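--- STAGE predict ---
source: upstream dedup step, 1 unique chain passed
mode: sequence only
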Amino acid sequence: MTHLPFLYLRPSERGGRGVFTAEPIAKDTVVELAPVIVLTGEDRQLIHRTSLHDYYFVWEDSGAALALGYGSLYNHDSAPNLDYEMDYGFEQIRFTALRDIRGGEELLINYMAGDEREGLWFEPVDGQ
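--- STAGE serialize ---
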C-alpha cells in the first residue's frame, strides 16, 4: 500500500489543490507511505529558484526531499488531522491520522511542527 485507495485531489479553499478522503479514516491509520526523491543541501538551495519550492520537505543533513504520491500536496493547518514522520532508512514519509477523519474532509499537515520543519513562507488561510 502506498496510500489509501479512496484519497483524491480537488481544488481547495486554501488555494490550489488539496488531498481529500472519500471515506472516513480512523485515528492512527497510516494514510500514506510516500517515497521521496532525496536532494542534497546544494540542490535545496537551487530548488528555491523553482516552482518546486512549495513542495519539498526538509531532509536530514540540510537536504530536501520531494514526496511522491500525494505527499507533497497536503495543505497546511496549525491544527492538522495528519502527522508525518521521516523514515530516512527507507527514504519515505509516513503520514498518519491524528484523529478520526470524516469522509469528504481535506487532509492537512502542520508545516511548522517538529524539529526539522521550518516557518511558513505564505499567509495561512483564516489564521491556520
